[in-house]
Amino acid sequence: MWWIYALLSALFAALTAIFAKVGIKGVDTDLATAIRTVVILILAWAIVLFKGSNQGMGSLTRVNWTFLILSGCATGLSWICYFKALQLGRVSQVAPVDKLSVALAIALSVLFLGEPLTLKNSIGALLIIAGTLVLIF
Length: 137
Hints:
Layout: H1 2-23, H2 29-51, H3 62-88, H4 91-98, H5 100-113, H6 119-136
Helix pairs in contact: 2-3, 4-6, 5-6
């Protein structure tokens, strides 16, 4: 079941690039990111409240809070850089480079989380890197 959500994530990420490219024409990218973030904030909280997931907030630990805040900061910085890159480049260039995050995530998961580096993961990461290089040059 996880792969269905992963495919939907990829679809929505692709739509994000297309919609953003049109939406940022003549707009400061930081302002565009702020508007996008407000929409995401409203949507995320609407889902949490609809599902009743807010009941779990009291059980969050200091570690949970720390790393969720760090993740939010990384997401925000990623979006700011992504929108600026989209404004300056073509979607067909920016999106593949952005997807290098997959290869980086594999490497970082091995280094920091102790996840095993399988042959399949290694080949996949190398193919992503090679594909990105082909699309860039």
